[in-house]
Each structure stands twice: as structure tokens, then as C-alpha cells.
Amino acid sequence: MSVFPSPQPVRSPRRRAPRNTLNPDRILDAAITLLDRDGAEAFTMRALAEQLGVATMAVYSHFRGKEEISDAVAERLLDTVELPRTCGADPRGELREVCLGVYRLFTEHPSALQLLTTRPMRSDDAIAVIDRMLALLCRAGLSQEAAVRAHVTLMQYTVGAALWSTRRARALCGEGVRERLRTKLDALPVECYPTLASLVPQVLDAQEDCAAQYEWGLDQLLRGLLAEG
Question: Where is this region: Disordered (predicted)?
Fold first, then answer.
């Protein structure tokens, strides 16, 4: 029996970022990565510093705190939504592209959903998106009141569809989950669920391709909203 104490495992030191390499862009890149991976609830200055490999106070040398970083992240993400420079001859088509851009933003960056729907509207980019959508709706022939109502309707649909898509993708990401769901639906008793049992392939196809489903619903919604235009 050895009289010497067992050696303790040596923990690798946290890799620090090289001096003078930290800048606002790098901080925002890390914040977006952290938010998308762990969610807004897990976003803290300490977690962000660990993601960057720096001391927490180093982050404070560029931003006053989490709220300022969250606003900057929201602005950066919204800046990726391309807006038509002017209202052209096809307001419906341009409006469709704006909605698709917002949907892609929300599905590619789930954190944007929470940042942009639960925080006060502070970003000029957010205001620009709203202004352009309202302009396109008015140009399509809607009254001012109808344009406002249509804009809210489109945003409600887009946010809801993106939330459905991201949560469904998370729920089905486990091994074998999709196969078990398909097996369960295929085994539905026809005498109890005659319509659903006969439409299982179509139901699965519609739910599988969330982007295509969103586009289909968006086209129907635009057709109805702009029918008076």
C-alpha cells in the first residue's frame, strides 16, 4: 500500500484571449453564439466572458452591461433583414420578401425571437422594418387603419411560425424521435381517426418542411389581406 497521497487531477487553465484583441464586434459575435446556444435566460456577463476567454471586467470596458449588449445584438441581427430601397411596382412581392427575411432571422437565431419581442423597441433597424412594411401595405391599396392591422397580423403569424419551427426542431432532435412519431401516426386506428389516418403522409410532409409551410401560409395570408388592395 502506497504511503504517498494520490495525485489530484490537474485542471487545464482557461485559455485566455491574447491581449488587445477584444473589441465590440468580437463581443457581439460571442454574445450571439451564446444566446443561440443557451438561450436568453443563460446570458450573463460572466457567461459571455467565459465564452470569450477573458475576465468579466474586460467586457465592461466595451459595454456598460448586459442590457446594452442585448440591444446591440438585436440591432446587428435586424440589420441582416434586407429591405427594398424603395416601394416598387410589386408591393406584395416586396412585402413577402421582408416577411421571409424576418422569418429566416428568427429561425436562424432563436435568441432574436426573445430579444425582439420582449424588449422595448429601441433599434433604428426595427423601426425601419416596421416603416417599410407599412409603406408597402399602403402602396398595395390598404387604408391606413387596415395597413396597421395587416402589419400586426403578419408579424404575429411570422413570430408564431418561427417559434413553432424552432421548438419543433428542438423537440425532434433526439435520436429516433421522428421515427417514433411516424410509427405512432401510422398506427392510428382508422375507425377512431378516419381523416387524420388517411392524411398521415401529407401531415408529416407539411410539418417536416417548416420553411415551405411558412411560405404557403404567408401567401394565403397576403392574398386575403390584400384582396381589397
Answer: 1-21
